[in-house]
Design a protein that fits this description.
Number of domains: 6
CATH class of the largest domain: Alpha Beta
Strand order of the largest sheet: 7-8-6-10-11-12-13
Largest sheet: 7 strands, parallel
CATH superfamily of the largest domain: Peptidase S8/S53 domain
Oligomer: single chain
Strand content: 35-45%
Radius of gyration: 33 Å
Structural class: alpha/beta
Helix content: 10-25%
Shape: flat
Number of strands: 47
CATH topology of the largest domain: Rossmann fold
Distance between the termini: 58 Å
Length: 734
């Protein structure tokens, strides 16, 4: 039994978890905003109360459409948006998602220039023309794939194990790295970009947890992949012995229209390597960042193309990322490109398959980099996809959203079908049904707790037809009693409303509001001689929700009211605590407060807020009057205590410590301007950790003097006192 050896050269730095002031962490803070649109007639006070319930602060209003941009606590944007949307007073609420330039991707290692290979082969330009298709699957014949990895979990659509291992997952680490190069989730704000972009992955484990397998396992894997819809098969593996079994498997897959790609080997010679050597396989050599042949790479007249294979960053098991080198890394670049080209070619020779056209496009449009023994040259993704012409579409698609007809909130998990194909709406209520032949369809949407709805949709080949659904929930009801809070006696004639519908209590204090759509309502009860009372009521379709009220007589007619502002900026302060004796309240979103039910007399009023010094003063209250007391709170000050430097591994680390009068401050946003040698400058931003230090890094710092100037220190209401501490410092790298 022959053994298949994996080409795996460990080269580069393995990076695990990310923290501190990385660009990735900074970008996350921009996702802590929810866009909220209220229904007509909702008062400012109601809006302020709802924002307070969700910890939201209004940062701006988009005039013309009356949408409020609301900042919520970090990491709670998704849940806050969903909670806002459930309130009957809200028309809609959604996360303030990021937008990027067309053709660009926001994956961390691509944005930060780790993935030099994708730039070299002009992948971004190729993505402007096509990002592939989820129906194009790349079979990764390897040591398995970590299907729980965040950059791969949604990409793997099939698994099979022909190895000696007891698990289909990747223990050795090679297959996960290869899969990420070929088709990692791209433009998802994390990790790496995969050249295959929208392609999916078939995890075909043919090598064990020691990185070794058999030719028979590889043959099994090739046949299985070809029979289960693979359009591209990547084999970053091989051996120096030929095999008729292996060649038959290769020919079988090629005959079913599959493009097969294999590593040329890492022996640094021209000795044939299998299965790469077979005619129906694209043999791939490895090149480095300078477009030269990698010293370990095989070469020869049997090699078809080269691709980047030196110091390639990609996915690794256990949710990590790292760099590896080898023709094993070069091969999946070609596999990913093959998946892109599949979406652009047409059957030019009429043989019923596209694999011959795909292979020709890859090889005929490679760049001649002046290296012999690498066939057509180093691949160029842009040229390959640009040189092709897409086959005329024969199908279209149906897409749209499913919402609640009453609240306008999006409905996740709704089932939408055209009678043959179906889809499920996502967290934003969106759905898409692909590969729908041209024609007219009765499309139906159904969701739990709602009535189903149908509409006729005309589908045109090559186009997406829109079909939005607004599903009506069956009505529910709200019922209960209204009583005197002091005596417990029922109150007849009290008015109860959910904001739209209303009822009057009977002689027994009972009421019932019928035909209430499912949702959350603020229900209010009022009666002559009593204070009104409100409560939030959740109505479920087809059920009666109970809301009992105990109304209190009016309080004594004395009160203190006013506005709390920032003494420096004049801005109103929401959430400030105002205490008068045992009574207390907090200011609303407009910085206003009211303390009612106060008897006549003199009081000491104390106002406090996070980040401000307390203010106390004497206030007199008279019967039947409201005493107006406006308070200006002086903000606490903070300053830069120190700027320190440290050289480490060729990098220059800069630590900026921020303190106030009490201790080091965490969560402070700091921006520094770094002026380095040879006219180089950097503007870096980050936040302080629990020790009050914000850390910045100048990568590969050259020799010379670096001047660091702090340009911004921001922590909400805390005031940056630039007259204290230090605001700049210099350091010389020798």
């Amino acid at each position: 039994m022959k053994r298949v050896l994996v080409f795996l050269v460990l080269a580069g730095l393995v990076v695990g978890m990310f923290g501190g002031n990385t660009a990735q962490a900074a970008a996350a803070s921009s996702r802590d905003t929810v866009l909220v649109k209220f229904r007509a007639g909702v008062s400012q006070a109601e809006k302020g109360t709802l924002h307070k319930q969700h910890g939201g602060v209004v940062r701006g209003i988009i005039s013309g459409i009356d949408v409020e941009a609301v900042t919520v606590p970090a990491g709670r944007a998704e849940s806050a948006a969903a909670s806002y949307a459930k309130d009957s007073r809200v028309r809609y609420a959604e996360v303030d998602h990021e937008a990027i330039a067309v053709g660009g991707v926001n994956d961390y290692y691509f944005v930060n220039s780790y993935q030099w290979a994708l730039t070299t082969i002009q992948a971004p330009q190729a993505w402007d023309l096509t990002t592939g298709c989820s129906t194009i699957s790349i079979a990764v014949l390897d040591t398995g794939v970590d299907t729980s990895h965040p950059d791969l979990s949604g990409k793997v659509v099939g698994n099979i194990n022909y190895s000696s291992s007891g698990t289909v997952s990747d223990v050795y680490g090679h297959g996960t790295h290869v899969a990420g190069i070929a088709a990692a989730a791209t433009n998802n704000g994390q990790g790496v970009a995969g050249l295959g972009y929208d392609s999916t992955i078939l995890n075909v484990k043919v090598m064990g947890d020691d990185g070794v397998g058999t030719y028979s396992a590889v043959a099994y894997g090739i046949v299985w992949a070809a029979d289960h819809g693979a359009r591209v098969i990547n084999m970053s593996l091989g051996g120096t012995s030929s095999s008729s079994t292996l060649q038959d498997a290769v020919n079988y897959a090629w005959g079913k229209g599959v493009v097969l790609v294999a590593a040329a080997g890492n022996n640094g010679n021209s000795v044939p390597f299998y299965p790469a050597y077979f005619q129906n396989v694209i043999a791939v050599a490895s090149t480095g960042p300078t477009d030269t042949l990698s010293p370990y790479s095989n070469y020869g007249d049997w090699v078809d193309v080269a691709a980047p294979g030196g110091s390639i960053w990609s996915t690794k098991p256990n949710n990590s990322y790292g760099s590896l080198s080898g023709t094993s890394m070069a091969s999946p670049h070609v596999a990913g490109l093959g998946a892109l080209v599949f979406t652009r070619v047409s059957d030019t020779n009429g043989n019923g398959f596209l694999n011959d056209e795909v292979r020709a496009c890859i090889q005929n449009n490679a760049d001649n980099i002046g290296v012999t023994g690498i066939g057509s040259g180093r691949i160029n993704a842009y040229k390959a996809v640009q040189a092709t012409s897409p086959a005329p579409p024969t199908t279209g698609s149906i897409a749209g959203t499913v919402t609640d007809a009453v609240t306008g909130a999006t409905i996740a998990g709704a089932a939408v079908t055209d009678g043959t194909r179906s889809a499920t709406s996502d967290a934003n209520g969106g759905y898409s049904i692909a590969n729908v032949p041209a024609g007219t369809y009765a499309v139906t949407a159904t969701a739990s707790g709602h009535n189903s709805a149908s509409q006729s949709v005309q589908v045109t080949a090559g186009q997406t037809s829109t079909a939005n659904f607004a599903l009506s929930p069956p009505p529910g009801a709200i019922a209960g009693t209204v009583r005197d809070a002091a005596t417990g006696a029922t109150i007849a004639g009290a008015a109860v409303t959910d904001g739209t519908r209303s009822a009057t209590t009977n002689a027994s204090g009972g009421y019932s509001i019928a035909n209430v759509s499912a949702g959350t309502y603020t229900v209010t009860a009022t009666a002559s001689g009593y204070n009104s009372a409100s409560q939030s009521v959740q109505v479920t379709a087809g059920q009666t929700s109970t809301a009992n009220f105990a109304l209190s007589p009016p309080p004594p007619p004395g009160a203190i009211a006013g506005t709390v502002r920032d003494a420096v900026t004049g801005a109103t302060i929401a959430g400030a605590t105002v205490k008068v004796g045992v009574a207390s309240t907090t200011t609303d979103a407009s910085g206003q407060y009211v303390l009612s039910d106060l008897t006549e007399g003199s009081y000491t009023e104390t106002v406090s807020a996070s980040g401000y010094a307390d203010v106390s003063q004497s206030v007199s209250v008279a019967i039947g009057q409201t005493t107006v007391v406006n308070v200006n709170l002086p903000p606490n000050t903070m300053w830069v205590d120190s700027i320190s430097f440290k050289q480490s591994g060729g990098n220059l680390r800069i630590d900026v410590k921020v303190v106030n009068a009490k201790a080091a401050m965490s969560g402070v946003k700091v921006t520094v301007y770094v002026s380095g040698p040879v006219g180089k400058t950097w503007t870096l931003s980050g936040s302080t950790s629990t020790n009050g230090i914000a850390t910045f890094m100048v990568q590969k710092a050259s020799r010379g003097t670096y001047l660091v100037t702090v340009t911004r220190v921001y922590a909400g209401v805390n005031y940056w006192d630039m007259t204290k501490g230090v605001n700049s410092a210099s350091y010389t790298v020798k």
